[in-house]
Specification:
Bound molecules: adenosine monophosphate, magnesium ion
Number of strands: 28
Largest sheet: 6 strands, mixed
Helix content: 10-25%
Structural class: alpha+beta
Strand content: 25-35%
Radius of gyration: 30 Å
Amino acid sequence: MVSYEEALNIIINSVIELDKEKVSLRESLGRILAADIVSDMDMPPFDKSAMDGYACRQCDLQHILSIIETIQAGSLPEHKILKDQCSKIMTGAMIPEGADCVVMVENSKKPGKDKVRFNNVNSNTNICYKAEDIKKGDVLLSKGTYIKAQHIAVLATAGCSKVPVARKPKVGIIATGDELVEPQEKVSGSKIRNSNSYLLAAQVETVKGIANYYGIGRDNLKDLNDKVKKMKQENDIVVFSGGVSMGDFDLVPKILNDNNFKLLFEKIKIKPGKPVVFGISDVDKGRRKYCFGLPGNPVSTFVSFELFVKPFIYLLMGHKYKPKSIRLPLIETIIRKKSERMSFIPITITGEGVKRVEYHGSAHISSLPLADGLISIPIGISEITEGTKVDVRQI
Ligand code: AMP
Ligand code: MG
């Protein structure tokens, strides 16, 4: 049995990054940048006005000035500013030669036609100077960046209309269990509905993987064998739910082994989610296939995906995922009977701090939508007292 940290390290060290592709700006949201983005120009590319106002010389600010032209954003100034002259200028327009400041229109009066004088002048030049934001050749975004809306604005500014991103990993998903029926089917007798396939597909798609679903695998060697062969061939990663613990029909580790996956661990000292299996294939033409066997109880499936599969998928795409975490006080004392595993507990955030959601154990899937995050209790710790600040990993 490996620790949480050891399991993560093993996963991280097995990664061979996926190749890249180019997508349009609009398609790049949520993808991982596969190259550094370098600016091909200065920003701003010229001295520009930060205000609607009058471009003039600071030494003339106390005088009545003649307005010699109006400069619109996007057009070039035609006249140089000389003594006691100014040009009316719009935000974003180029500062005319000779001017060294812009006075806001709000601080001006018109004493006559084509004349202006100023009140409330201060030392602000109201000029955005050439290259003050970005210099040509600056690295604006680094390889491995997770692309959000704000990054897309930077990509557009840099003229990067075809964005180099990591290819989406293909993830084959299968739920195992003779007790499972699909959501649209009627449940009777000893059956339950399969929630995990849909949970996992949604988790994969949240991290921009391609989720391929292979249906319910029955708890027999033949069915699982047939399915895993196809899944392995068609995907980068195969993910099983269920069939990984100690029962007579928990066949997944054997099936993975039989299909040339080398299992690097089969149990982790965490709760929920002890029987998490991870394996790798041999490297073939620079590529490798990976497998995860996740425990069948839905909360365990969810948590083990969050903890291990999600950072793994991001790393395959070249992104070092850091879960969003905030430090908040506990508003209740948490006591646990056993402390030989690291616990992950679903919590909710209130105005005062953090408290547990009602949670009966790893089968209690309806507790999860109520949770804002998970807190962890390290091995060896059996009590965290009210008031202690804890790190909340947001989900
Ligand atoms: P297993 O890991 O196969 O021993 O399953 C552990 C528990 O999770 C059992 O109670 C299963 O019925 C339940 N379970 C397994 N797979 C699923 C699934 N796909 N959806 C919902 N519950 C499941
Ligand atoms: Mg099972």
